[in-house]
Amino acid sequence: MTQSPTLSRRSQTSAVPQSRKPRRRGADTRAGYTFLLPWLLGFIALTVGPMISSLYLSFTNYNLFDAPKWIGFDNYATLFQDERFLQSVGVTLSYVVFGTPLKLAAALLVAMLLNSKRRGQGFYRSAFYAPSLIGASVSIAIVWKAMFGDSGPVDQGLSFLGINLGGWVGNPNMTMGMMILLTVWQFGAPMVIFLAGLKQIPADLYEAASMDGAGPVRKFINITWPMLSPVIFFNLLMETIHAFQIFASAYIISNGEGGPAGSTLFYTLYLYLRGFSDFRMGYASAMAWLLVIVVGVITLIFFKTSKSWVHYSGDAK
Amino acid sequence: MINRRNFLTTVALGTASAAFLSACGQSSPAQTGSAQNPVTINYTWWGNDDRAERTRKAIALFESKNPDIKVNGNFTDFAGYWQKRATEAAGGGLPDVMQWDLSYLRDYGQRNQLLDLGTVKINTDAFDKSLLPSGQIRGKTYGIPTSTNAFAVYYDPAKLKSLGIAEPDGSWNYKEFNAFLADVGQKGNGTLFGGTDYTGIWWNFNIWLRQNNIKAFTDEGKLGFSKDDLKKWWNLTADLRGTGAIVGEDKATQLLPKSPFGSNVTATEVTWDNFMAGYLADSGAKELKLVPVPSDDPVNLGLFLKPSMLMVASAKTKYKDAAARFIDFMVNDPEVGQIFKTSRGVPASKTQRDGTTFEGTDKLVVDYEKSIEKYLKDAPEPPIVGFGTLESTFKRVTQDLNYGKLTVDGAVDAWFKEAEDLIKQNA
After folding, report:
1. What's the CA gap between A240 and B251, in Å, rounded?
2. Within 10 A of A247 (CB to CB), how many other CB atoms are there?
3. pLDDT on residue A317
4. B89: which chain A residues are within 8 Å (Cβ-Cβ)?
5. Contact yes or no for A288 and B5 at CB 8 A
6. Quick one: pLDDT at residue A10?
């Protein structure tokens, strides 16, 4: 480890002065890999290695103490008879399906509002971005819990409007709404990306459309949406994958139990409980790999369908 | 997510390689220290700041009396505690001495992670002989109880008085207890509830089984009761769920991590008697009282003293002698009793108990344990492997019952499925 940088530096200096063109490339590549090495070692030791061992563990019965026992596909088969597992799949899917589009819609809407030239836009941008910086933190989940409790601000505000829902935190029918609101509120990251995308759209397109008498809706459908579609695709992909992995906020709001009545038992939370509370690491690994496969397949589907609606500049369309 | 999944294996690999390296490069270390060159042992416990403060005092006292040993203390909360121990055990690096809970004794003891304390010198002469078996598995002693606790019904006399309800004397059967809860609920009129659903607590069920002379677990580690028994148990409060007698689960959930009783939402709570100090601090009540749990058999209350916590040592500790001396000190020394009072429970060792002066609420707890002395029977042996999961599933399933998401039959099936699955898993 300590030797290799010195070695390659020496080989590089000796390589450069000789014949320039053909060798240069090899030296550059070597230098590139040398600089990559620390990261590459970390990637292999800390990501690839554990992933392979977790793949192996997913076919075993492993409780952390005794040696793993090979049981083939038993873990995967048991998953589909496990009611709590099926519940966690349902909870996670409804979160992804409803939460992600809402979050992206909010992000796009605010990005469009912030795209116009007004005074103090810098401040507004920061203000809208801030929640996504702190949103995943422990304190926010705790604040959220207090806000949506019995006679918390949300309950009181709604009562003022004549809507009496009571606290959301303890009501299994309301917790999903609460979790989705929490993620929608953290629209900052996709918003910034949308904003960058919006700035790339040439202003003369809108000018020309205005001359032809197009209204704002028309301009959005025919100019903004297609011109922005690569950015929308990117955000949709990232946010969907992200949504599948929700953990921290659910863990804190439900005290790590996925309650009330399993309504916040997200996939990763159940995986964690199986692994670290029940010491069923094989089962947890099987769940993890199933998630990897499902997210992979969904990503693939997104890419396949993207051809019909995502337009890159320079395309013939 | 990826990081979390990797975490364990990473830790395991890391500690494994560290262990490998240290195994290679080590000439056998000194197993005993001297005042000039003390050995350092690691000690870890769970608890709040109050316990941390008291523990630090006890450690300082130990170090002043034993200059050849240094104790490196470390603590977390209860839930995080077991996750840490699991990863450490997987990597072979458990701390030398640990505070332990009965629910996890079998998981680690049976898997050879804990030191057989019969092989080292710890004085247990001052211990009640009915208590020691709860730290033993198959004849080996893995844990020494620091202190005991017993099950009790807490109530707030001021709250009962304001509702015009007479204080209970604790000689009640389940029907009378239910009627009492319903009375509180009715007069409390939505602001004060009778209690939480007492059928949701495993240990309460265990006491009811003992009252009916049924063993919770067989010696082979199987369930000792039937689905019908559990059905009867969960049906005990069937008529009370959803009424003022039992606080709604939606309310209780929001109060977490405080209990409804500590939040002044209920008038009673059925649980361990060493929670007294915590309840007093949480609720701000002037006075709380303790009476025995209900029983349909007036001479068999099913009560027992349980070690509220145990002291254990790692099987792989390099300093067995130092670890044993520290455990002996923590469980027997009268001055340690003065430091902890009843915050760990009532001291288990008579030497330590006699050396401690109990006043105020501490005296209430000690007096309660004295008052039930004639009903006490042998403590149960350490529960089966994976018991922690069964206990939390018990609670969760009862919550679903209270939400109306499950029927009693469905709840019984759900719990048994989990239990049978777990027993098969660990067989």
Report:
1. 33
2. 16
3. 45
4. 64-65
5. yes
6. 45
For residue A238, what pLDDT band results from cuts at 50, 70 and 90? very high
Within an 8 Å CB–CB cutoff, is residue A226 touching chain B? no
Q: For the segment A167-214, what is each residue's pLDDT rounded down to a tens digit?
A: 788 888 888 998 999 889 888 889 999 999 999 899 899 999 989 988
Q: Which residues of chain B have pLDDT under 50?
A: 1-29
pLDDT at B91: 79
For B61-77, the pLDDT digits (tens) are 999 999 999 999 999 88
Residue B90's pLDDT is 79
pLDDT for A44 equals 93
Residue type, B90: A
Q: Convert the pLDDT of each residue in A73-113 to its tens digit.
A: 999 999 998 889 999 999 999 999 999 999 999 999 999 98
Whether B1 and A257 lie within 8 Å, measured CB to CB = no
pLDDT in tens, B90-119: 777 899 999 999 888 988 998 889 999 999
Chain A residues near residue B389 by CB distance under 8 angstroms: 277-278
> Nearest-CA distance from A154 to chain B in Å?
14
Which ipTM score applies to this complex? 0.74
Instruction: Return the number of other C-beta atoms located less than 10 Å from residue B220's C-beta.
Output: 9
B111 with A61: Cβ contact below 8 A: no
Flag whether residue A278 sits within 8 Å of chain B, measured between CB atoms. Answer: yes
Contacts of A171 in chain B (CB under 8 A): 250
Q: How far is B421 from chain A (nearest CA, A)?
A: 10
Beta-carbon neighbour count of residue B192 at 10 Å? Answer: 20
- pLDDT band of residue A315 (cuts 50, 70, 90) is low
Torsion of CA A267, A268, A270, A274, to 10 degrees: 140
> Per the structure block, which two tokens stand in for B301?
């209350």
Distances (CA, A) of B5 to A53, A133, B135: 11, 24, 34
Q: How many CB pairs under 8 A join A and B?
A: 103
Could you tell me the two tokens for B350? 């008579």
| SS3 per residue for chain A | CCCHHHHHHHHHHHHCCCCCHHHHHHHHHHHHHHHHHHHHHHHHHHHHHHHHHHHHHCCEECCCCCCCEECCCHHHHHHCCCHHHHHHHHHHHHHHHHHHHHHHHHHHHHHHHHCCCCCCHHHHHHHHHHHHHHCCCHHHHHHHHHHCCCCCHHHHHHHHCCCCCCCCCCCCCCHHHHHHHHHHHCCHHHHHHHHHHHHHCCHHHHHHHHHCCCCHHHHHHHHHHHHHHHHHHHHHHHHHHHHHCCCHHHHHHCCCCCCCCCCCCCHHHHHHHHHHHCCCHHHHHHHHHHHHHHHHHHHHHHHHHHHHHCCCCCCCC
Average pLDDT along chain B:
87
Q: How far is A118 from chain B (nearest CA, A)?
A: 40
